[in-house]
Amino acid sequence: MRKVAVVGAGMTKFARRALETPKELSYQASKAALDSAGMKLKDIDCVAHGSAPDAFDGIHQKGEYLADGCGGWNKPTMRVFVGGATGVHAIAHGWYHVASGLADTCLVVCEEKMSSAMPHAQAFFLTIFDAITERALGLNLIWIFALEMKRYMERYGYTKEDMALSAMKNKNQGLKHPASQFYGGNELTVEDILNSEVMASPVSRLDVSPVSDGAAAIVLASERTARRLTDKPVWIEGVGWCLDTAYWATRDLYYPRYTEIAARKAYKMAGIREPHKEINIAEPYDPFGYKQLHHMEGLLLSPKGKTVELLRDGHFDMDGNLPMCPSGGLLGVGNPIAAAGTLKLCELFWQLRGEAGERQVPGNPRLGVAQAWGDLMQVSSVVVMGINNA
Amino acid sequence: MDHKEFIRGGTALSEDEIKSGKIFVEEDALDCRYAWDTGVAIGRYLAELKKGKIIAKKTNCCDRIMIPPRMFCELCYRPSGAWTYVQDTGVVNTFSISNIYYDASRVPSGEPNPMPAVIEIDGASKGMGIMHLLGEVKPEDVKIGMKVKAVWKPESERTGSITDIEYFKPY
Amino acid sequence: MSKKVAIVGLGYSSFRTTSQDVSYREMIFEAATKCYEDAGGVHPQDIDAFVACSEDFMEGISIADEYVPDQLGAVLKPVQSITGDGLQGLASAAMHVLTGELDLVTLSAFSKASNVLHYANVVSYACDPTYVRPLKENPYFIAGLEMNRYLYETGTTEEQCAMVTAKNKGNALFNPTAAYGAKIDVKDVLQSDPLFSPLKYLDKSQDLDGAIVFLLASEEKAYQYTDKPIWIKGLGWATDTPNLDNRLDGMGDAVYARLAAQKAYEMAGITYPRKEIHFAELDDTFSFKELQHLEALNICSRGEAGKLLEQGVFSKNGDFPVNVSGGSLGVGYLHEANGLQRLMEVVLQLRGEAGKRQLDDVETGLAFAWRGIPTATGAAAVLSSRY
Ligand SMILES: [Zn+2]
Questions:
Q1: Which of A129, A174, A280, B46 could be stapled to A180 by a disulfide with Cβ–Cβ 3.0 to 4.6 Å?
Q2: Taking CA C385 as the corner, what is the angle to CA C380 and CA C387, rounded to the nearest 5 degrees?
Q3: Which residues have a beta carbon within 5 Å of ligand 1, which is an ion?
Q4: What's the CATH number for A4-113+210-386?
Q5: A28 CA: distance to closest CA in chain B (Å)
């Protein structure tokens, strides 16, 4: 297999409502990523981009619309789509462009502008449900996550407080991310989260990541080009993705089996046998507090039903055995859907190169995993990235 | 090198900037309409709902009773078998009590909270559930594992839709 | 490219103008079942990955990716969607295999265009929301603009465009999957209702419902599934600017096709496409597009396609048959599945399974798809029955 490296990363700030158009946000992130790689657009062979539902923007064929903002003018440009998992999946999409030998360099860009949807982006989520058998019930997206969260908590006896602790950890870590809406702000307590308005029990307002506008990008290169560009390439060690049945109500929601299958594929490609021992840093998808715990179990980084215990023991702290969401994640930085997954790719790139500033995880992390999740609680994309520390 | 240099743009707008008219917007309401073909399996499912019955499909390959019905078993990848009625009762697999409607607008005080639930339908294979709503029960009394029964609209008001069942209530 | 990828399975549902008797899931199940049987009865759980092509607004479903796995037998398998034409999906699926990590990949696309009640509205939502859409014009004006500019730049005539429609609808009479076959002549097209001048009703293809599924395999695995693998020799796709007002060269010329073809030919080692390729199935969403695409694909020089058409070069018994299937004008317009309909014809021809319209002695074929107005994206694939 041809080795593929990440050689650059960049992103916009995540704003509740951004001045920029989707094209402009894409441009800003792409340009920052190219600059960080010391590259010009002419050095890029192809563009692999991603964005979540077209309905937010009210733009049909959004991939076409975004193409020039993503640097795709007069280039091979292709948009990939796996709902909320798109932001991490985009690296797999870029990876096969380069690993196949068809391209030497690839710009991977994910963008989301959710504030254009009026009165609220949530209204458009109604259109993700089965058009015939579900939509007439007037469903809200948060409801189905509430159903999953309830099932997960019930299964292991986890409490609302446990879930709030998980959310709090990321929200407070996000205060250190310059792209965060809350950069430099005040820390929250578990009580703040527990006392926030109940949206759909057991989900409270502060259990949820904030809807945002933003974009993020990374640059991929083949081994030869990567070594020419940088002495600190970050390698894509493994990728995996998996989609479960669309009949989501026929699954037991307490465990994300699709995440496990995706993770096993990525670990196998990366030659990882004991992920919980070998992985130094994890960026599980965290649109809700409970989700990152759920995903840590699916990623085989925490035993089923023991994750809260490990969380409380500090196992997932920045100086713990397995730092979790050092970026602050979606909860701490913001959730412009596809871009939020790519935020995690940027974070691994910076952390593995030791460039994460005040968020830098100690001990020279060597191997990291990022994961995103989406569709009808149904899909996971997983990537393992690594750096060879001399 | 510090990563901060590569975080650029994403200029946050304040409510004031928007309200004061300094920021121009172009408004449009989407007008996309569809008439989705329901097909063989879901077409029959809806027709039976109109009659006040829930119909499922058996598989010959793995001996399941599937709800909602499908023309094929997605696991064995074989055409499915005979139609079979299942009960209009079931068990709550998981639920939520909501303070918001589909568009994130708040439920006004005094109005009932929507109570979405996954209901495992009696007579279908274990774990086979559908998404629906609960009613005629106090939010604090809803429990996982609770037995519920469909409350049907009057026959004259049924249209061949999942909403021909108004909600499920404990029994 | 050191490794090779083959098409080892093909299945399709019946193509119809409406398909009220089946849901899209049931339609895709039919196509996929046929594909897997065509590939020697492979079970989908033995397939390594799945690529589907779709656009949310065409389905009326957000995150349409959700509803992909079941009908393809892809539950708990690697599945992803490309919001692009089926030939972009082909490139994605082929790249999966070329990494060396995956051996068998399914590719699918479908159209349920009959379920979309206001298609022109959907197309208008593909236009820039702040400075094109507010014009409140029917978006097909863009096709009129492009056609006018193409005729102006190349000297191609409306009669020559009309001749494309007549040829393709005539070809479709020999294709049992085609819905719009007809025996008509140039005059019928010229006298059809004007749409956006110079575009007329019969210059434009009409919607069709249908699903198409392919199975791709690595060269190590190909012969396990078929005796007649069709090899993917070249792939290319490209996007010109999405902005109408700075498309510059792209209003009269299909720049996206030029760029996509360059890549595909380079990969396939093709220097003289007209000689080294024996026939083509290419986008004819509008009649003029077939001529414009032939020129951009370097099958002939600019302004030459209309004349060669008059000489019969592109007829089914001509020197370089084009759209023997009937194309979109004759078969129907399958939206994201358009490219796969082209690919399907190329595969059937190369296998020698094209029935009454079988071409003699063809070994290498070209498929090309365009994503339609207002886009400037196209994808090309060169295929061969020779290893
Ligand atoms: Zn079965």
A1: A174
A2: 100
A3: B 59, 61-62, 73, 75-76
A4: 3.40.47.10
A5: 6
